[in-house]
Design goal:
heterodimer; A: mainly alpha; two-stranded antiparallel ribbon; 14 helices; B: 403 residues; alpha/beta; Rossmann fold; seven-stranded mixed β-sheet; elongated; ABC transporter substrate-binding protein (chain B); amino-acid transport (chain B); transport (chain B); Peripla_BP_I (chain B)
């Protein structure tokens, strides 16, 4: 497939990291960045390509995470089928939320608010339910064994996360080239025109949100397997909704590499400032904020766009 | 030739130096690195800052007193990590501490951070001493590296019930009816369920159980309901902000039960509440962590903290005590080796007296200090006093509250 080469190059380069870097600090940082990149790639499908800005991707992230954890802890299921089920249930939740929101014709800020509300409802429910462990949270037993989807080496987990991110990148590329991708972009640019041309707008949006939710749900499942602990604020908290939309917006929404680039820039910058000015608490968050202000203030609103503009100027 | 001269000379000095070294007194043993993990940014930063302060004061005191004697007077060097009020922040700091070569980690504060961080530390058999986190899951995972000096949730709640009965009996059983107010998450709901099951067995009648969400912006309806029920006791199990709101609303509406009795509430053992809303806080009781007022060190430490214009919260004495526990283990281990420190921590006994918590002789079973226990505090005259158990108390309980 044309365009797959940069993705494979990225996968190979990143895949070399555990062989070249012995520091678990760096590997841990890369794993977390990859998990965020995967969640962000999910958001990018719906928000970047489809123009449907969701403020509530936590609903999918949390569902993927909780299903992965609950099936193992409460029903003794193996981690791999539990993880797969997590992705499936997250996709179903995406389909359901999409059906309710899109069928009523919610767009723009109304759609954003509805997704935010869904994520909040899930958070409150998860906080009160017995099944999720409520406010005390749910703990996956530490058994570092590949059979349990837990690895003694952080490098191995990096490869697993990288494989999923690479798959997501390839899927995004395939979507970009596909009929569905073209229809999605048409819906983003002008919904009425797309409809007039015979695009089934509802069906296109539903497919997009289902795929999007599955990807973000996979990120949630990975989070659960990596940190082995969840509570309602981690799984359904606003932090992940914000992370999932910031990375593509900074890195380039509606592009294949945007979310990965955004996640690496935002988290890399944060980590770098933390280690350079470690004694000032919260300095990395200040930098985070400044980058966001710059990106939103100066269109085209992503960092690659800014760089291109500078070169042209 | 000159070059050779220099080389030869340095060789001679070098050899002489190596030979002379054992004869010199051991001037400075290498410092022992100790990881201190606290959330100092985000929602938990107040607790984290006060935890860090406690650890800092303990480390300064140990170093000023000649360091770890068993290690030739080695100084303790603090490697601080900001857990950022979330588990992944905690894990990433544990990785950094591991890379720095710390011998143990103390802290975490919140249960989710403690759970994730101690698990990350267990990958490296790195001893982890929990400072506060009360979740019973922390010490039930079979992690050999994890220790908790303070009490867990189960111990605190059963002590709270026992102490309530003892308090009421000693005052001639003035209270019989109770209203429970709880936040609707698992913490509050779980506590409410437990109280509903246990209070009737101990001679109390629960008039009503009122739930409210977190965050809650208004407590007027809850207060009005309490007013109409006229209970003897109000038992809230909510988080800090909601409880402060409830206490203020009750004060404004002049609702005065015979007692407000909190469990792990945080507000009634927090000087911020006492300073900011002294009237609402007055005579509120809490069952929570608190240092031993009988120990002279407690007053000394409090003075040091207040000299820095900081509030006296339980985080400071708990972290002070946890660092002292690790120092004690290092003394007994005799080497800055993780496995030896874990072994020494597990073998801690009553001979460890450098902590300032009101606990009996230390004994660890599966990482949990069996002597860890809460106390009852009461806000009296703009101060937080220990009223129960009587052996530790520095004030008489004002109960029932009249007027």
């Amino acid at each position: 497939m044309k365009g797959a080469l940069p993705i494979l190059a990225f996968a190979v380069l990143m895949g070399l990291a555990p062989l070249l870097v012995a520091s678990n600090v760096v590997l841990n940082f890369l794993v977390f960045t990859l998990i965020i990149a995967l969640a962000a790639q999910g958001w990018n499908l719906l928000g970047g390509y489809g123009g449907q800005y969701s403020f509530g991707h936590a609903a999918f992230f949390g569902t993927g995470a909780y299903v992965t954890a609950i099936l193992q802890v409460r029903y003794g299921m193996n981690a791999y089928p539990a993880f797969t089920a997590g992705i499936g249930v997250a996709a179903l939740v995406g389909l359901a939320i999409g059906f309710l929101a899109f069928r009523s014709g919610l767009r723009g800020s109304y759609f954003a608010l509805v997704t935010l509300a869904f994520a909040e409802v899930f958070r409150v429910l998860a906080n009160a339910a017995e099944m999720t462990g409520g406010a005390a949270g749910i703990l996956i037993r530490l058994q570092a064994n590949p059979a349990n989807f837990q690895f003694a080496e952080r490098g191995t987990f990096l490869w697993v996360a990288l494989a999923l991110v690479t798959l997501a990148l390839l899927a995004t590329l395939a979507l970009e080239r596909s009929r569905l991708g073209a229809q999605l972009v048409a819906v983003r640019e002008n919904e009425a025109a797309a409809q007039a041309l015979g695009v089934d707008v509802l069906a296109v949006k539903l497919r997009a949100i289902t795929l999007s939710a599955a990807m973000t749900g996979a990120a949630g499942g990975l989070y659960a397997q990596y940190f082995l602990y969840l509570d309602a604020n981690i799984a359904y908290g606003t932090w992940i909704s914000v992370e999932a939309l910031l990375a593509p917006i900074v890195g380039g929404a509606g592009t294949v590499f945007g979310p990965v680039l955004g996640a690496v820039i935002l988290h890399g910058l944060g980590e770098a400032t933390k280690s350079l000015a470690g004694s000032i608490p919260g300095i990395d968050l200040v930098i985070f904020g400044i980058v966001l202000i710059l990106v939103v203030r100066f269109p085209p609103r992503d960092l690659p766009g800014l760089l291109r503009r500078r070169r042209r100027a | 030739m000159a070059k050779f001269e220099v080389a030869r000379r340095s060789l001679v000095f070098g050899v002489a130096g190596v030979l002379a070294a054992p004869a010199l007194p051991r001037a400075q043993a290498p410092a022992v690195k100790l990881g201190i993990l606290q959330p100092v940014t985000g929602a938990l930063s107040q607790d984290g800052e006060h935890g860090r302060l406690g650890a800092e004061l303990a480390i300064n005191e140990i170093n000023a007193g000649g360091g770890i004697r068993a290690l030739g007077g080695a100084r303790i060097e603090m490697v601080f990590g900001d857990a950022r009020s979330n588990p992944e922040g905690g894990v990433s700091e544990v990785e950094k501490m591991q890379a720095e070569g710390v011998v143990a980690i103390v802290g975490g504060f919140a249960s989710p951070i403690c759970l994730a961080a101690s698990q990350a530390a267990s990958r490296y058999d790195l001893p982890y001493v929990v400072d506060v986190g009360v979740s019973d899951q922390i010490v039930s995972r079979g992690l050999a590296n994890t220790f908790r000096f303070g009490p867990g949730f189960g111990v605190v709640t059963s002590a709270a019930l026992d102490n309530l009965v003892a308090l009421n009996d000693a005052a001639g059983k003035p209270s019989r009816t109770v209203v429970i107010v709880h936040e609707d998450g698992l913490f509050g709901s779980g506590m409410a369920r437990l109280l509903n099951a246990e209070l009737p067995k101990r001679g109390f009648e629960v008039l009503e159980t009122i739930a409210h969400p977190t965050p809650a912006r208004d407590m007027n309806n809850v207060a009005l309901r309490i007013r109409s029920l006229r209970p003897d006791l109000v038992i809230p199990s909510s988080y800090y902000a909601e409880f402060v709101l409830l206490a203020r609303t009750m004060q404004q509406q002049r609702i005065r039960p015979k007692g407000i009795y909190c469990v792990l509430n945080g507000a009634a053992s927090n000087y911020r509440f006492v300073r900011e809303f002294p009237d609402a806080a007055n005579l509120v009781m809490d069952c929570n962590h608190w240092p031993d007022p009988r120990k002279p060190k407690t007053a000394e430490l409090r003075q040091q903290v207040e000299a820095q214009n900081r509030f006296w919260l339980y985080n400071t004495p708990m972290n002070y005590s946890a660092v002292m526990l690790v120092a004690d283990a290092l003394e007994r281990a005799g080497r800055a080796d993780r496995a030896a420190v874990i072994q020494a921590l597990a073998a801690t006994d009553g001979a460890f007296t450098k902590h300032i918590m009101p606990y009996g002789p230390t004994r660890f079973v599966n990482g949990q200090n069996q002597a860890g226990a809460p106390v009852n505090t009461q806000v009296q005259n703009n101060d937080i006093k220990v009223i129960f158990p009587r052996d530790f108390a520095d004030a008489q309980p004002v109960y029932p509250v009249t007027g």
